[in-house]
């Protein structure tokens, strides 16, 4: 696999002149598409796996077309029975506030290391940090939509599951998931769906299509999108009934969805971040596109004197219209403490430690004993936020972000940057 | 026999260039090399599977599709609004800086007398606190139920949504953040004006207003231009002030757009192209400034 800049056949060609609108909208997509397809096809030979790779050199997993990520001699797992490393720093690359400090502290004390978190906001940012030359991380939390690419580029190493006996604690479907058959590179971390977290004390009535809250001028200046191009654009696709294919590669549909998001700028001065768990309880936001885990964690960020009843979560009634997802845990190839990383993974799949972590970050781990009913009975989920609970059956119908070819990613990215420019 | 004079000449012939060497190395290492790297990214014709441009280090490989797309979109596409916003916000913030900064600098240089040291220290005092911290303090003051709105309520003004992507807040924050940069060069130039010129003006029967307009203002013109340049350059590229007090696409400035491309995603070729474009625009103003100073020093001679 090589990208030789000197090879003229690999160079990006300039797109033929188009109408102004197309140039603005699709110019980037086209130009990338023209250049990238021969380039990617040229090195697709060793990708293997799925047939529908759509021009990507790596397999694109789908629930009905599962992928066993390739194991390579050049990227072996660690040996069995190694002693854990000690001293120094265990470096975790993760979303901010996504792992309980108590869990990290206990683990650090037990093994004589300092656990440090480097935060990211999006997978793009995570990949950039992971690939930065000279950087080393011991743990990372990728979702299925970036996994094949990371394996292909040797960013993560295969797991040695003799260190992870607790894998049997997770839902059976996640011991052998469609995006990583045989759990070769990942174990699941959390599950969630996407909806709208809002202040029940400020929002008088919720429309049938709760996403309309985001377009409601009554809450102007207090409306937030998730700062995530996939989540934001997908929400617009669904709200406007454009398509339920939240992985669409059709430039017209993505443009239509983006136009509707751009409306939000003038209409409600929309902002974007991924801190719904604190912005809504603290009152900075009235309406915030949010992950279900943010809704559950919100109770820990309420100001004194306010109860969880000021929070409410809306998501589409039917699971088939819901965006649902999961994050995984993986060990970067650059890990300096891979044995410790395996041990921490095993800890996180422990029922007790998993529960402690959930009690802090609000994101359900797919552990069999921590069923939704159990979490409610134990009082972890307030009565009025029961609809923020994710059930195994939701995954049979829900809409999931799949891994898409780089050209489709570029198309979404370009639309998102146009939204960020203010339209 | 060595001729001591020739010897001396030979030494100086080597000494002067040698003295310029550290500065030259510095310039090459920290200016020309990075600029070249930015060009290699902006003019890259290849992306990898992560969507990142592969830098084209050889100028023969340079492709200008991305750059021309960015230029087109800056002239008539989504970035036009961003450029206009940047220019308007920077312009307004500079005017506020001038309106506040000139009197302060004038007072400090001419009228503060014994207290001048104290006044200067007070102007510089905010620099003892980190810029971000000061901006975050504003965020607290400007909350919907913050002290600013409470104070406005006392005089009967309806509360303002300062932080909801409000352009006014961004302009005020920029002016606040960069005001000391504006005052200092202006102070230095006002301070340097020969007292005797002002006395002469008064001796000749000119009133204080006309003395200011015809003597002080023209003599401080260069200082004023320096203040504008020193403040405008960082303001035009600023992104964190905007992020802290707004972070809404409603107020996106060119710095925010560059940050989006360079730090939040892989499309660094777009970010690099915008960086080059911004540098070109700023270079234009820098050139004007250099012409002005050149002319001023010639006149002085």
From TrEMBL, chain A:
Its main location: periplasm. Gene3D superfamilies: Periplasmic binding protein-like II (3.40.190.10). It is found in: Periplasm. Keywords: Periplasm, Signal, Transport. The keyword Transport applies. Residues 46-85 are annotated as: Disordered. PANTHER family: SPERMIDINE/PUTRESCINE-BINDING PERIPLASMIC PROTEIN, SPERMIDINE_PUTRESCINE-BINDING PERIPLASMIC PROTEIN. This is Spermidine/putrescine ABC transporter substrate-binding protein.
From TrEMBL, chain B:
Its main location: membrane. It is found in: Cell membrane. The keyword Transmembrane applies. It is a multi-pass membrane protein. Residues 83-291 form the ABC transmembrane type-1 domain. Keywords: Cell membrane, Membrane, Transmembrane, Transmembrane helix, Transport. The keyword Membrane applies. Gene3D superfamilies: MetI-like. The chain crosses the membrane at residues 19-43, 87-106, 118-139, 168-190, 211-233, 270-291. It holds the Pfam family BPD_transp_1. SUPFAM superfamilies: MetI-like. InterPro entries: MetI-like, MetI-like_sf. Belongs to the binding-protein-dependent transport system permease family. CysTW subfamily. This is ABC transporter permease. It comes from Nocardioides aestuarii.
């Amino acid at each position: 696999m090589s990208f030789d800049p000197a090879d003229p056949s690999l160079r990006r060609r300039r797109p033929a002149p188009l109408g102004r609108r197309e140039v603005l909208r699709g110019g980037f997509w086209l130009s990338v598409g023209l250049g990238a397809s021969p380039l990617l096809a040229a090195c697709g030979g060793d990708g293997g796996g799925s047939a529908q790779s759509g021009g990507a050199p790596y397999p694109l997993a789908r629930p009905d077309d599962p992928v066993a990520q390739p194991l390579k001699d050049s990227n072996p797992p660690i040996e069995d029975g190694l002693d854990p490393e000690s001293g120094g720093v265990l470096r975790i690359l993760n979303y901010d506030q996504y792992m309980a400090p108590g869990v990290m502290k206990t683990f650090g004390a037990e093994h004589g290391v300092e656990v440090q978190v480097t935060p990211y906001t999006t997978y793009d940012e995570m990949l950039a940090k992971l690939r930065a030359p000279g950087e080393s991380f011991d743990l990372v939390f990728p979702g299925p939509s970036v996994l094949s690419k990371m394996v292909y580029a040797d960013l993560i190493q295969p797991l040695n599951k003799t260190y992870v006996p607790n894998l049997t604690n997770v839902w059976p479907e996640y011991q052998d998931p469609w995006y990583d058959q045989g759990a070769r590179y990942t174990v699941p971390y959390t599950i969630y769906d996407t909806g709208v977290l809002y202040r029940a004390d400020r929002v008088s009535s919720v429309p049938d299509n709760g996403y309309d809250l985001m377009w409601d001028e009554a809450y102007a200046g207090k409306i937030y999108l998730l700062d995530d191009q996939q989540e934001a654009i997908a929400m617009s696709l669904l709200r406007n009934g454009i398509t339920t294919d939240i992985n669409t590669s059709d430039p017209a549909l993505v443009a239509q969805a983006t136009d509707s998001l751009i409306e939000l700028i003038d209409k409600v001065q929309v902002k974007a971040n991924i801190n719904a768990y604190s912005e809504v309880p603290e009152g900075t936001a009235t309406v915030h596109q949010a992950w279900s885990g943010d809704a559950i964690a919100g109770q820990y960020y309420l100001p004194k004197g306010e109860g969880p009843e000021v929070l409410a979560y809306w998501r589409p009634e039917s699971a088939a219209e819901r965006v649902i997802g999961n994050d995984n845990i993986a060990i970067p190839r650059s890990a300096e403490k891979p044995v410790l990383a395996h041990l921490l993974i095993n800890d996180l799949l422990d029922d007790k430690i998993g529960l402690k972590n959930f009690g802090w970050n609000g994101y359900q781990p797919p552990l069999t004993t921590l069923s939704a009913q159990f979490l409610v009975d134990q009082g972890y989920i307030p009565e009025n936020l029961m609809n923020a609970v994710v059930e195994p059956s939701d995954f049979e119908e829900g809409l999931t972000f799949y891994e898409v070819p780089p050209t489709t990613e570029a198309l979404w990215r370009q639309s998102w940057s146009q939204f960020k420019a203010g339209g | 026999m060595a001729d001591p004079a020739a010897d001396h000449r030979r030494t100086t012939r080597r000494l002067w260039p040698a003295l310029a060497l550290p500065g030259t190395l510095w310039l090459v290492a920290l200016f020309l090399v990075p600029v070249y790297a930015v060009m290699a990214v902006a003019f890259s014709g290849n992306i990898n599977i992560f969507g990142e441009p592969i830098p084209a280090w050889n100028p023969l490989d340079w492709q200008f599709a991305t750059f021309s797309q960015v230029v087109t979109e800056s002239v008539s596409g989504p970035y036009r609004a961003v450029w206009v916003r940047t220019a308007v916000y920077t312009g307004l913030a500079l005017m506020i800086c001038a309106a506040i900064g000139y009197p302060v600098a004038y007072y400090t240089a001419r009228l503060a007398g014994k207290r001048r040291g104290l006044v200067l220290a007070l102007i510089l005092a905010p620099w003892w606190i980190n810029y971000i911290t000061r901006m975050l303090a504003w965020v607290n003051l400007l909350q919907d139920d913050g002290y600013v709105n409470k104070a406005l309520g006392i005089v009967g003004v309806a509360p303002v949504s300062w932080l909801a992507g409000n352009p006014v807040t961004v302009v005020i924050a920029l002016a606040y953040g960069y005001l000391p940069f504006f005052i200092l060069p202006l102070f230095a130039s006002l301070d340097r004006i020969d007292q005797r010129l002002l006395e002469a003006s008064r001796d000749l029967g000119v009133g204080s207003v006309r003395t200011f307009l015809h003597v002080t203002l023209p003599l401080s013109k260069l200082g004023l231009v320096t203040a504008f340049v020193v403040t405008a350059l960082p303001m035009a590229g600023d992104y964190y002030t905007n992020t802290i007090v707004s972070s809404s696409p409603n107020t996106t400035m060119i710095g925010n757009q560059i940050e989006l491309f360079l730090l939040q995603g892989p499309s660094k070729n777009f970010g690099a192209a915008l960086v080059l474009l911004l540098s070109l625009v700023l270079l234009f103003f820098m050139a004007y400034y250099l012409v002005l100073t050149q002319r001023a020093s010639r006149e002085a001679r």
